[in-house]
Design a protein that fits this description.
The chain is α+β, with helices and mostly antiparallel strands. It has helices spanning about 10-65, 70-95, 100-125, 130-160, 165-185, 185-195, 200-220, 230-275, 325-340, 345-360, 450-460, 465-480; strands spanning about 280, 285-290, 300-305, 310-320, 365-375, 380-385, 390-395, 400, 405, 420-425, 430-435, 490-495. The protein is elongated.
Protein backbone atom coordinates (compact mmCIF):
# COMPACT_ATOMS: atom_id res chain seq x y z
CA UNK A 1 0.00 0.00 0.00
CA UNK A 2 1.38 3.36 -1.07
CA UNK A 3 1.09 6.17 1.39
CA UNK A 4 0.85 9.74 0.15
CA UNK A 5 2.39 12.26 2.50
CA UNK A 6 1.88 15.97 2.44
CA UNK A 7 5.41 16.32 1.03
CA UNK A 8 4.55 14.24 -2.07
CA UNK A 9 1.29 16.09 -2.95
CA UNK A 10 2.94 18.90 -5.00
CA UNK A 11 4.54 16.30 -7.24
CA UNK A 12 1.17 14.64 -7.80
CA UNK A 13 -0.51 17.95 -8.65
CA UNK A 14 2.27 18.76 -11.11
CA UNK A 15 1.94 15.34 -12.74
CA UNK A 16 -1.85 15.64 -13.03
CA UNK A 17 -1.55 19.12 -14.50
CA UNK A 18 1.01 17.89 -17.05
CA UNK A 19 -1.27 15.04 -18.06
CA UNK A 20 -4.21 17.43 -18.51
CA UNK A 21 -2.11 19.83 -20.59
CA UNK A 22 -0.88 16.94 -22.74
CA UNK A 23 -4.45 15.74 -23.26
CA UNK A 24 -5.58 19.25 -24.20
CA UNK A 25 -2.70 19.56 -26.67
CA UNK A 26 -3.56 16.20 -28.20
CA UNK A 27 -7.23 17.23 -28.42
CA UNK A 28 -6.29 20.61 -29.96
CA UNK A 29 -4.01 18.92 -32.45
CA UNK A 30 -6.81 16.52 -33.36
CA UNK A 31 -9.28 19.37 -33.80
CA UNK A 32 -6.75 21.34 -35.82
CA UNK A 33 -6.14 18.35 -38.07
CA UNK A 34 -9.90 17.93 -38.45
CA UNK A 35 -10.30 21.63 -39.36
CA UNK A 36 -7.46 21.39 -41.85
CA UNK A 37 -9.08 18.33 -43.40
CA UNK A 38 -12.36 20.21 -43.75
CA UNK A 39 -10.53 23.21 -45.18
CA UNK A 40 -8.71 21.01 -47.73
CA UNK A 41 -12.01 19.47 -48.80
CA UNK A 42 -13.72 22.88 -48.99
CA UNK A 43 -11.04 25.01 -50.63
CA UNK A 44 -12.50 24.52 -54.13
CA UNK A 45 -16.00 25.39 -52.92
CA UNK A 46 -14.73 28.45 -51.07
CA UNK A 47 -12.83 29.73 -54.10
CA UNK A 48 -15.59 29.03 -56.64
CA UNK A 49 -18.31 30.29 -54.31
CA UNK A 50 -16.43 33.53 -53.65
CA UNK A 51 -15.78 34.06 -57.36
CA UNK A 52 -19.41 33.43 -58.36
CA UNK A 53 -20.68 35.63 -55.54
CA UNK A 54 -18.34 38.45 -56.59
CA UNK A 55 -19.38 38.08 -60.24
CA UNK A 56 -23.02 38.22 -59.16
CA UNK A 57 -22.58 41.46 -57.26
CA UNK A 58 -20.50 42.90 -60.11
CA UNK A 59 -23.22 42.07 -62.66
CA UNK A 60 -25.93 43.68 -60.55
CA UNK A 61 -23.75 46.77 -60.08
CA UNK A 62 -23.15 47.12 -63.82
CA UNK A 63 -26.88 46.63 -64.47
CA UNK A 64 -27.68 49.45 -62.03
CA UNK A 65 -25.29 51.78 -63.88
CA UNK A 66 -26.56 50.74 -67.33
CA UNK A 67 -30.30 50.90 -66.71
CA UNK A 68 -30.97 52.79 -69.95
CA UNK A 69 -29.24 50.11 -72.01
CA UNK A 70 -31.71 47.30 -71.29
CA UNK A 71 -29.34 45.55 -68.88
CA UNK A 72 -32.05 43.46 -67.20
CA UNK A 73 -30.28 40.29 -68.28
CA UNK A 74 -27.28 41.29 -66.16
CA UNK A 75 -29.48 41.49 -63.06
CA UNK A 76 -30.72 37.93 -63.56
CA UNK A 77 -27.26 36.67 -64.47
CA UNK A 78 -25.95 38.35 -61.33
CA UNK A 79 -28.60 36.75 -59.13
CA UNK A 80 -28.01 33.38 -60.79
CA UNK A 81 -24.27 33.59 -60.21
CA UNK A 82 -24.65 34.86 -56.64
CA UNK A 83 -27.11 32.09 -55.70
CA UNK A 84 -24.86 29.43 -57.23
CA UNK A 85 -21.87 30.81 -55.33
CA UNK A 86 -23.68 31.32 -52.03
CA UNK A 87 -24.54 27.67 -51.40
CA UNK A 88 -21.06 26.04 -51.44
CA UNK A 89 -19.42 29.06 -49.81
CA UNK A 90 -21.97 29.22 -46.97
CA UNK A 91 -21.75 25.46 -46.28
CA UNK A 92 -17.96 25.53 -46.25
CA UNK A 93 -17.75 28.49 -43.87
CA UNK A 94 -20.39 26.90 -41.66
CA UNK A 95 -18.43 23.61 -41.51
CA UNK A 96 -15.33 25.55 -40.44
CA UNK A 97 -17.31 27.35 -37.72
CA UNK A 98 -16.69 30.77 -39.24
CA UNK A 99 -20.30 31.98 -39.29
CA UNK A 100 -22.39 33.44 -36.42
CA UNK A 101 -24.98 31.27 -34.72
CA UNK A 102 -27.97 33.02 -36.31
CA UNK A 103 -26.57 32.27 -39.76
CA UNK A 104 -25.93 28.65 -38.80
CA UNK A 105 -29.58 28.33 -37.75
CA UNK A 106 -30.86 30.07 -40.89
CA UNK A 107 -28.60 28.23 -43.34
CA UNK A 108 -30.90 25.23 -44.00
CA UNK A 109 -33.74 27.59 -44.93
CA UNK A 110 -31.55 29.80 -47.12
CA UNK A 111 -30.03 26.76 -48.80
CA UNK A 112 -33.43 25.25 -49.57
CA UNK A 113 -34.76 28.52 -51.02
CA UNK A 114 -31.67 28.92 -53.20
CA UNK A 115 -31.75 25.28 -54.33
CA UNK A 116 -35.32 25.55 -55.58
CA UNK A 117 -35.21 29.08 -56.98
CA UNK A 118 -31.88 28.93 -58.81
CA UNK A 119 -33.55 27.24 -61.79
CA UNK A 120 -36.23 29.95 -61.90
CA UNK A 121 -33.63 32.74 -61.83
CA UNK A 122 -31.59 31.05 -64.57
CA UNK A 123 -34.71 30.67 -66.73
CA UNK A 124 -35.49 34.36 -66.17
CA UNK A 125 -32.04 35.24 -67.48
CA UNK A 126 -32.64 33.20 -70.64
CA UNK A 127 -36.07 34.83 -71.03
CA UNK A 128 -34.26 38.09 -71.87
CA UNK A 129 -32.73 36.36 -74.91
CA UNK A 130 -35.94 34.89 -76.33
CA UNK A 131 -38.78 36.11 -78.51
CA UNK A 132 -42.03 34.79 -79.97
CA UNK A 133 -43.24 31.35 -78.89
CA UNK A 134 -39.94 30.62 -77.17
CA UNK A 135 -40.60 33.53 -74.83
CA UNK A 136 -43.99 32.02 -73.99
CA UNK A 137 -42.30 28.66 -73.31
CA UNK A 138 -39.77 30.23 -70.94
CA UNK A 139 -42.54 32.02 -69.06
CA UNK A 140 -44.33 28.70 -68.64
CA UNK A 141 -41.10 27.13 -67.32
CA UNK A 142 -40.71 29.98 -64.83
CA UNK A 143 -44.33 29.62 -63.69
CA UNK A 144 -44.02 25.85 -63.18
CA UNK A 145 -40.63 26.31 -61.52
CA UNK A 146 -42.08 28.84 -59.08
CA UNK A 147 -44.93 26.46 -58.24
CA UNK A 148 -42.48 23.62 -57.53
CA UNK A 149 -40.25 25.96 -55.52
CA UNK A 150 -43.07 27.22 -53.32
CA UNK A 151 -44.33 23.68 -52.72
CA UNK A 152 -40.82 22.39 -52.00
CA UNK A 153 -40.03 25.22 -49.59
CA UNK A 154 -43.38 24.62 -47.88
CA UNK A 155 -42.59 20.91 -47.47
CA UNK A 156 -39.27 21.82 -45.88
CA UNK A 157 -40.81 24.28 -43.44
CA UNK A 158 -43.46 21.83 -42.24
CA UNK A 159 -41.65 18.49 -42.53
CA UNK A 160 -37.93 19.30 -42.51
CA UNK A 161 -37.38 17.49 -45.83
CA UNK A 162 -35.55 19.74 -48.27
CA UNK A 163 -35.52 17.42 -51.30
CA UNK A 164 -39.15 16.31 -51.45
CA UNK A 165 -39.72 17.92 -54.87
CA UNK A 166 -36.10 18.38 -55.96
CA UNK A 167 -36.36 15.57 -58.53
CA UNK A 168 -39.19 17.43 -60.29
CA UNK A 169 -37.21 20.66 -60.12
CA UNK A 170 -34.19 18.96 -61.69
CA UNK A 171 -36.29 17.30 -64.38
CA UNK A 172 -37.85 20.65 -65.30
CA UNK A 173 -34.37 22.20 -65.47
CA UNK A 174 -33.10 19.37 -67.67
CA UNK A 175 -36.08 19.54 -70.06
CA UNK A 176 -35.94 23.33 -70.43
CA UNK A 177 -32.18 23.17 -70.95
CA UNK A 178 -32.65 20.55 -73.66
CA UNK A 179 -35.13 22.80 -75.47
CA UNK A 180 -32.81 25.81 -75.15
CA UNK A 181 -29.86 23.84 -76.49
CA UNK A 182 -31.94 22.65 -79.45
CA UNK A 183 -33.00 26.22 -80.28
CA UNK A 184 -29.43 27.52 -80.00
CA UNK A 185 -27.98 24.66 -82.07
CA UNK A 186 -30.45 24.89 -84.98
CA UNK A 187 -29.67 28.12 -86.92
CA UNK A 188 -33.22 28.61 -88.25
CA UNK A 189 -34.70 28.27 -84.75
CA UNK A 190 -32.08 30.59 -83.27
CA UNK A 191 -32.89 33.30 -85.83
CA UNK A 192 -36.61 32.91 -85.18
CA UNK A 193 -36.77 32.61 -81.40
CA UNK A 194 -33.60 34.22 -79.98
CA UNK A 195 -32.41 37.80 -79.77
CA UNK A 196 -28.69 37.27 -80.28
CA UNK A 197 -26.11 39.37 -82.11
CA UNK A 198 -23.94 36.24 -82.46
CA UNK A 199 -25.01 32.75 -81.34
CA UNK A 200 -21.66 30.95 -81.73
CA UNK A 201 -20.22 31.85 -78.33
CA UNK A 202 -23.45 30.97 -76.54
CA UNK A 203 -23.61 27.71 -78.50
CA UNK A 204 -20.24 26.58 -77.10
CA UNK A 205 -21.21 27.50 -73.54
CA UNK A 206 -24.60 25.83 -73.80
CA UNK A 207 -23.20 22.56 -75.10
CA UNK A 208 -20.54 22.35 -72.38
CA UNK A 209 -22.97 23.27 -69.63
CA UNK A 210 -25.70 20.99 -70.97
CA UNK A 211 -23.54 17.89 -70.84
CA UNK A 212 -22.46 18.66 -67.29
CA UNK A 213 -25.88 19.85 -66.04
CA UNK A 214 -27.94 16.98 -67.43
CA UNK A 215 -25.56 14.46 -65.93
CA UNK A 216 -25.44 16.23 -62.54
CA UNK A 217 -29.18 16.87 -62.23
CA UNK A 218 -30.08 13.29 -63.11
CA UNK A 219 -27.20 11.46 -61.42
CA UNK A 220 -27.44 12.89 -57.90
CA UNK A 221 -31.09 11.93 -57.23
CA UNK A 222 -30.23 8.40 -58.38
CA UNK A 223 -27.42 8.09 -55.81
CA UNK A 224 -24.40 8.64 -58.08
CA UNK A 225 -21.70 10.93 -56.73
CA UNK A 226 -20.34 13.68 -58.95
CA UNK A 227 -17.40 15.99 -58.42
CA UNK A 228 -18.37 19.57 -57.53
CA UNK A 229 -15.47 21.02 -59.50
CA UNK A 230 -16.91 19.93 -62.85
CA UNK A 231 -20.23 21.57 -62.05
CA UNK A 232 -18.45 24.81 -61.14
CA UNK A 233 -16.36 24.76 -64.31
CA UNK A 234 -19.39 24.01 -66.50
CA UNK A 235 -21.36 26.83 -64.93
CA UNK A 236 -18.37 29.19 -65.21
CA UNK A 237 -18.12 28.51 -68.96
CA UNK A 238 -21.85 29.15 -69.47
CA UNK A 239 -21.73 32.28 -67.33
CA UNK A 240 -18.80 33.64 -69.32
CA UNK A 241 -20.63 33.02 -72.59
CA UNK A 242 -23.84 34.63 -71.30
CA UNK A 243 -21.85 37.62 -70.07
CA UNK A 244 -20.34 37.96 -73.52
CA UNK A 245 -23.77 37.85 -75.15
CA UNK A 246 -25.25 40.25 -72.58
CA UNK A 247 -22.46 42.77 -73.10
CA UNK A 248 -22.98 42.50 -76.86
CA UNK A 249 -26.67 43.26 -76.41
CA UNK A 250 -25.96 46.16 -74.06
CA UNK A 251 -23.39 47.59 -76.46
CA UNK A 252 -25.85 47.26 -79.34
CA UNK A 253 -28.60 48.95 -77.29
CA UNK A 254 -26.28 51.79 -76.29
CA UNK A 255 -25.34 52.39 -79.92
CA UNK A 256 -29.03 52.38 -80.81
CA UNK A 257 -29.79 54.83 -77.98
CA UNK A 258 -26.94 57.09 -79.06
CA UNK A 259 -28.23 57.04 -82.62
CA UNK A 260 -31.76 57.82 -81.42
CA UNK A 261 -30.49 60.69 -79.28
CA UNK A 262 -28.68 62.15 -82.28
CA UNK A 263 -31.81 61.80 -84.38
CA UNK A 264 -33.88 63.41 -81.62
CA UNK A 265 -31.43 66.29 -81.42
CA UNK A 266 -31.83 66.81 -85.17
CA UNK A 267 -35.63 66.54 -84.83
CA UNK A 268 -35.52 69.09 -81.99
CA UNK A 269 -33.61 71.53 -84.16
CA UNK A 270 -36.00 70.97 -87.05
CA UNK A 271 -39.01 71.55 -84.82
CA UNK A 272 -37.47 74.71 -83.42
CA UNK A 273 -37.04 75.90 -86.97
CA UNK A 274 -40.74 75.45 -87.81
CA UNK A 275 -41.84 77.59 -84.85
CA UNK A 276 -41.79 81.38 -85.15
CA UNK A 277 -38.31 82.70 -84.45
CA UNK A 278 -39.77 85.96 -83.08
CA UNK A 279 -43.08 87.56 -82.28
CA UNK A 280 -44.58 89.88 -84.93
CA UNK A 281 -44.31 93.63 -84.28
CA UNK A 282 -47.55 95.39 -85.26
CA UNK A 283 -49.20 98.71 -84.53
CA UNK A 284 -51.48 98.60 -81.49
CA UNK A 285 -50.72 94.91 -80.85
CA UNK A 286 -48.30 93.17 -78.52
CA UNK A 287 -47.92 89.40 -78.95
CA UNK A 288 -45.99 87.06 -76.62
CA UNK A 289 -45.76 83.26 -76.69
CA UNK A 290 -44.46 80.50 -74.42
CA UNK A 291 -43.69 76.96 -75.61
CA UNK A 292 -42.82 74.15 -73.17
CA UNK A 293 -42.61 70.70 -74.80
CA UNK A 294 -42.96 67.63 -72.58
CA UNK A 295 -40.25 65.72 -74.45
CA UNK A 296 -37.45 66.64 -76.84
CA UNK A 297 -39.99 66.98 -79.64
CA UNK A 298 -43.67 67.74 -79.22
CA UNK A 299 -47.05 67.91 -80.89
CA UNK A 300 -47.92 71.50 -79.98
CA UNK A 301 -47.57 74.10 -82.72
CA UNK A 302 -48.27 77.80 -83.17
CA UNK A 303 -47.82 80.22 -86.04
CA UNK A 304 -48.41 83.87 -86.91
CA UNK A 305 -49.72 85.08 -90.27
CA UNK A 306 -49.05 88.83 -90.44
CA UNK A 307 -50.84 90.54 -93.34
CA UNK A 308 -49.88 94.17 -92.70
CA UNK A 309 -49.23 96.48 -89.74
CA UNK A 310 -52.86 96.28 -88.62
CA UNK A 311 -53.90 92.71 -89.35
CA UNK A 312 -52.55 89.38 -88.16
CA UNK A 313 -53.68 85.81 -87.81
CA UNK A 314 -52.70 83.76 -84.72
CA UNK A 315 -52.86 79.98 -85.06
CA UNK A 316 -52.38 77.36 -82.35
CA UNK A 317 -52.71 73.56 -82.56
CA UNK A 318 -52.29 70.47 -80.40
CA UNK A 319 -51.61 67.08 -82.00
CA UNK A 320 -52.87 64.10 -79.97
CA UNK A 321 -49.96 62.10 -78.58
CA UNK A 322 -46.37 63.01 -77.95
CA UNK A 323 -42.90 62.55 -79.34
CA UNK A 324 -41.77 62.12 -82.92
CA UNK A 325 -45.12 61.01 -84.49
CA UNK A 326 -46.91 64.06 -83.09
CA UNK A 327 -44.01 66.30 -84.12
CA UNK A 328 -44.27 65.03 -87.71
CA UNK A 329 -47.96 66.02 -87.84
CA UNK A 330 -46.99 69.43 -86.42
CA UNK A 331 -44.44 69.77 -89.23
CA UNK A 332 -47.20 69.00 -91.74
CA UNK A 333 -49.20 71.88 -90.24
CA UNK A 334 -46.28 74.22 -90.89
CA UNK A 335 -46.38 73.35 -94.58
CA UNK A 336 -50.18 73.42 -94.72
CA UNK A 337 -50.30 76.91 -93.18
CA UNK A 338 -48.57 78.30 -96.26
CA UNK A 339 -51.45 77.10 -98.46
CA UNK A 340 -54.06 79.05 -96.47
CA UNK A 341 -52.22 82.36 -96.21
CA UNK A 342 -54.47 83.92 -98.93
CA UNK A 343 -57.47 83.14 -96.68
CA UNK A 344 -55.84 84.46 -93.48
CA UNK A 345 -58.68 86.97 -92.97
CA UNK A 346 -61.28 84.15 -92.80
CA UNK A 347 -60.89 81.69 -89.87
CA UNK A 348 -63.47 79.32 -91.41
CA UNK A 349 -61.43 78.96 -94.60
CA UNK A 350 -58.15 78.63 -92.70
CA UNK A 351 -59.40 75.70 -90.67
CA UNK A 352 -61.22 74.11 -93.61
CA UNK A 353 -58.07 74.33 -95.74
CA UNK A 354 -55.94 72.73 -93.01
CA UNK A 355 -58.54 70.00 -92.58
CA UNK A 356 -58.41 69.17 -96.29
CA UNK A 357 -54.63 68.77 -96.04
CA UNK A 358 -54.74 66.54 -92.94
CA UNK A 359 -57.79 64.46 -93.82
CA UNK A 360 -56.79 60.85 -94.48
CA UNK A 361 -53.13 61.44 -93.59
CA UNK A 362 -53.18 60.01 -90.06
CA UNK A 363 -55.98 58.09 -88.39
CA UNK A 364 -54.12 57.74 -85.09
CA UNK A 365 -53.36 61.41 -84.47
CA UNK A 366 -56.18 63.95 -84.50
CA UNK A 367 -55.46 67.67 -84.20
CA UNK A 368 -57.25 70.34 -82.20
CA UNK A 369 -56.68 73.88 -83.41
CA UNK A 370 -57.79 77.48 -82.95
CA UNK A 371 -57.37 80.52 -85.18
CA UNK A 372 -57.75 84.18 -84.16
CA UNK A 373 -57.72 86.98 -86.76
CA UNK A 374 -57.29 90.52 -85.42
CA UNK A 375 -57.85 93.73 -87.40
CA UNK A 376 -56.95 96.78 -85.29
CA UNK A 377 -57.77 99.22 -88.10
CA UNK A 378 -61.42 98.13 -88.15
CA UNK A 379 -61.44 97.22 -84.40
CA UNK A 380 -62.65 93.67 -84.88
CA UNK A 381 -61.53 90.10 -84.31
CA UNK A 382 -62.72 86.80 -85.76
CA UNK A 383 -62.30 83.46 -84.02
CA UNK A 384 -62.94 79.82 -84.86
CA UNK A 385 -61.67 76.52 -83.47
CA UNK A 386 -61.55 72.80 -84.18
CA UNK A 387 -62.19 70.95 -80.91
CA UNK A 388 -59.82 73.29 -79.03
CA UNK A 389 -60.04 74.75 -75.49
CA UNK A 390 -61.91 78.09 -75.46
CA UNK A 391 -60.34 81.46 -76.19
CA UNK A 392 -60.05 83.72 -73.14
CA UNK A 393 -60.87 87.39 -73.66
CA UNK A 394 -59.75 89.52 -70.73
CA UNK A 395 -61.15 93.01 -70.30
CA UNK A 396 -60.72 95.29 -67.27
CA UNK A 397 -62.56 93.68 -64.39
CA UNK A 398 -63.95 90.68 -66.28
CA UNK A 399 -63.07 87.60 -68.25
CA UNK A 400 -64.98 85.98 -71.11
CA UNK A 401 -64.66 82.39 -72.39
CA UNK A 402 -65.33 82.18 -76.12
CA UNK A 403 -66.12 78.80 -77.68
CA UNK A 404 -66.70 78.46 -81.41
CA UNK A 405 -65.79 74.86 -82.15
CA UNK A 406 -66.15 72.52 -85.09
CA UNK A 407 -64.74 69.00 -85.47
CA UNK A 408 -61.06 68.33 -84.81
CA UNK A 409 -58.89 68.50 -87.91
CA UNK A 410 -58.45 65.45 -90.13
CA UNK A 411 -61.43 63.28 -89.11
CA UNK A 412 -64.11 64.38 -91.63
CA UNK A 413 -63.85 65.62 -95.23
CA UNK A 414 -66.00 68.79 -94.98
CA UNK A 415 -66.76 69.83 -91.37
CA UNK A 416 -68.35 73.16 -90.50
CA UNK A 417 -66.35 75.69 -88.49
CA UNK A 418 -68.46 78.48 -86.95
CA UNK A 419 -66.88 81.91 -86.64
CA UNK A 420 -67.28 84.24 -83.65
CA UNK A 421 -67.19 87.99 -84.48
CA UNK A 422 -65.95 90.42 -81.78
CA UNK A 423 -65.44 94.16 -81.46
CA UNK A 424 -62.13 95.02 -79.82
CA UNK A 425 -60.86 98.04 -77.90
CA UNK A 426 -57.58 99.06 -76.32
CA UNK A 427 -56.94 97.04 -73.16
CA UNK A 428 -58.36 93.81 -74.52
CA UNK A 429 -56.23 90.71 -73.98
CA UNK A 430 -56.61 87.41 -75.83
CA UNK A 431 -55.17 84.14 -74.51
CA UNK A 432 -54.84 81.01 -76.68
CA UNK A 433 -53.53 77.85 -75.02
CA UNK A 434 -53.33 74.06 -75.37
CA UNK A 435 -54.86 71.57 -72.93
CA UNK A 436 -51.47 70.96 -71.32
CA UNK A 437 -52.26 74.13 -69.33
CA UNK A 438 -55.50 72.94 -67.70
CA UNK A 439 -54.92 69.16 -67.36
CA UNK A 440 -52.04 68.91 -64.82
CA UNK A 441 -53.20 67.35 -61.53
CA UNK A 442 -52.20 67.96 -57.93
CA UNK A 443 -51.54 65.31 -55.28
CA UNK A 444 -55.32 64.86 -54.77
CA UNK A 445 -55.92 64.16 -58.45
CA UNK A 446 -57.57 67.54 -59.05
CA UNK A 447 -56.90 69.17 -62.43
CA UNK A 448 -55.51 72.70 -62.68
CA UNK A 449 -58.65 73.41 -64.71
CA UNK A 450 -60.35 76.44 -66.17
CA UNK A 451 -61.12 78.01 -62.78
CA UNK A 452 -57.48 78.14 -61.67
CA UNK A 453 -56.41 79.38 -65.11
CA UNK A 454 -58.97 82.19 -65.08
CA UNK A 455 -57.96 83.17 -61.54
CA UNK A 456 -54.31 83.63 -62.56
CA UNK A 457 -55.32 85.57 -65.71
CA UNK A 458 -57.57 87.92 -63.73
CA UNK A 459 -54.88 88.55 -61.10
CA UNK A 460 -52.39 89.52 -63.84
CA UNK A 461 -54.76 91.68 -65.92
CA UNK A 462 -52.70 94.81 -65.40
CA UNK A 463 -49.34 93.08 -65.80
CA UNK A 464 -47.33 92.74 -69.05
CA UNK A 465 -47.97 89.62 -71.22
CA UNK A 466 -44.57 88.14 -70.37
CA UNK A 467 -45.35 88.35 -66.65
CA UNK A 468 -48.72 86.66 -67.18
CA UNK A 469 -46.99 83.76 -68.94
CA UNK A 470 -44.41 83.44 -66.15
CA UNK A 471 -47.14 83.43 -63.51
CA UNK A 472 -49.13 80.79 -65.36
CA UNK A 473 -46.15 78.49 -65.83
CA UNK A 474 -45.15 78.92 -62.17
CA UNK A 475 -48.71 78.23 -61.00
CA UNK A 476 -48.91 75.05 -63.09
CA UNK A 477 -45.56 73.84 -61.76
CA UNK A 478 -46.57 74.61 -58.16
CA UNK A 479 -49.93 72.86 -58.61
CA UNK A 480 -48.25 69.55 -59.37
CA UNK A 481 -46.31 67.49 -56.78
CA UNK A 482 -42.59 68.27 -56.83
CA UNK A 483 -41.76 64.71 -57.95
CA UNK A 484 -44.14 64.84 -60.94
CA UNK A 485 -42.69 65.52 -64.35
CA UNK A 486 -44.51 67.51 -67.02
CA UNK A 487 -47.28 65.32 -68.43
CA UNK A 488 -48.17 67.22 -71.62
CA UNK A 489 -46.88 69.87 -73.98
CA UNK A 490 -47.74 73.45 -72.96
CA UNK A 491 -48.21 76.35 -75.38
CA UNK A 492 -49.51 79.83 -74.51
CA UNK A 493 -50.02 82.84 -76.82
CA UNK A 494 -51.03 86.20 -75.34
CA UNK A 495 -52.16 89.07 -77.61
CA UNK A 496 -52.72 92.52 -76.12
CA UNK A 497 -54.59 95.30 -77.94
CA UNK A 498 -52.88 98.61 -77.15
Amino acid sequence: MIQVTWRSRPHLVWAATSILISLRCLEGAHLQDHALAILRDSVADIISGTVFLFIGFLACGIAAMRRRSGAHILIWLGLWSAMDGFRPLAHSLDALGLVPNWFHVSLPYLDTVAAYLIMVVGSRAFLELTTGKMRFFMRAVIFVGLAIALAGIGFFIFTGSNDKLMLYNNLLAACSLLVLVTVVVVPSLARKYLVLPDRRVLLVGMLIFAVQAVYTNLARPLGHQTSEIWGSLGFAVLLFCLWYVALQIISMNERRLLSMEKELAIAREIQKSILPSSNPELKNLRITAAYRPMTAVAGDFYEFIPIDQHRVGVFIADVAGHGVPAALIAAMLKVAIQSVVPSAHDPREVLAGLNRTLYGQSRDHFVTAAYLFIDTQNCKALYSAAGHPPLLLSRPGRLQRIESNGLVLGVAPEPHYPVHDMQITAGDRFLLYTDGVIEPENAKGEAFGDTKLEQVVLEAQMRPPSELLDRLLTAIRSWQPASTTQQDDITLVVTDVC
